[in-house]
């Protein structure tokens, strides 16, 4: 945790509650989305809009779902009231830690699933799969209703465990993997005259993950491209004020639009492929297209949380609290680099 000057203003409770409530509401939205569209619960809005159509069980389930959003507001209020002097930068670091875990788990997921699925796809194309897993399993893995739960989901569970116990690998290795996968296509095509659909699928699988998973890290490192005319000439405090406004009216709102449009209904662009375990139509390709739709959800969630962290960091910059990442060194407004 960075040191905070004793003269720094006390962290504003409403801002901290707002930031943590957005984070909590994001997870409440994801849980409710799963309960509504995968488990056929009525939805929290059903308690408000069509309570008369629900039986006792339906009312109870709808109340639980609506209560998740209430908890998303209550828990941040309790947390902030119990830690009134918690620096904004400390809250931001906790949020960034959550994002780092999500991205780390996502990296392991695409690595393990990608390698396993391309091996299965190769053996299936060449007719070797039945020799290793048996004819029944080989036949079943020709359909994603079997391959996804039997092969992909256990690997996703392993990815979550690896993300908890290791800090060594991360999404930046995906850039190397993409290059190696593309190099393998070039070598197999021009030297061995061999190319299959699953080879291109792996490149797209890993490249999509690299593009979407790296966005939150790039945000915290201030590495996104800026069309900058005035910003660079501003003091650090002025830059903080600009970033606060940007996080509120563009960043957080943009992420909510992604999640809502992608997951509002069963036929939305994220929910539909995930529920149908969608695959490509390229013959014997990889069976991971449905996971690529999930990449959009990971992007929206990770960016949402990171924008909340960036909001707190930017507010601290605006208030002149030392200890932040200096976007601009400007006389007396300089902030210590960490």
How would you briefly describe this protein structure?
With 338 residues, the chain is mainly α.
List the SSEs and their pairings.
Blueprint: H1 13-37, H2 46-49, H3 56-82, H4 88-126, H5 129-133, H6 135-140, H7 144-165, H8 173-190, H9 197-220, H10 236-263, H11 271-276, H12 289-318
Helix pairs in contact: 1-3, 1-12, 4-7, 4-9, 4-12, 8-9, 9-12, 10-12
InterPro entries: DctQ (IPR055348)
Subunit structure: The complex comprises the extracytoplasmic solute receptor protein and the two transmembrane proteins.
Transmembrane segments: 17-38, 58-80, 101-123, 171-192, 204-220, 240-261, 290-312
What does this structure look like?
The chain has 338 residues and is an all-alpha fold. It folds into two domains: 1-86, no CATH class; 88-333, no CATH class. It has helices spanning 13-37, 46-49, 56-82, 88-126, 129-133, 135-140, 144-165, 173-190, 197-220, 236-263, 271-276, 289-318. Helix 1 (13-37) runs antiparallel to helix 3, helix 4 packs antiparallel against helix 7 and helix 4 (88-126) runs antiparallel to helix 9 (197-220). The longest helix has 39 residues, at 88-126.
Uncertain spans = 1-6, 327-338
Q: How many angstroms does the end-to-end distance come to?
A: 10 Å
Helix content: 55-70%
- Largest sheet features: none
Q: Which H/E pattern describes the elements?
A: HHHHHHHHHHHH
Whole-number total of structural domains: 2
Shape: globular
Mean pLDDT: 86
Strand coverage percent: under 5%
Specify the structural class: mainly alpha
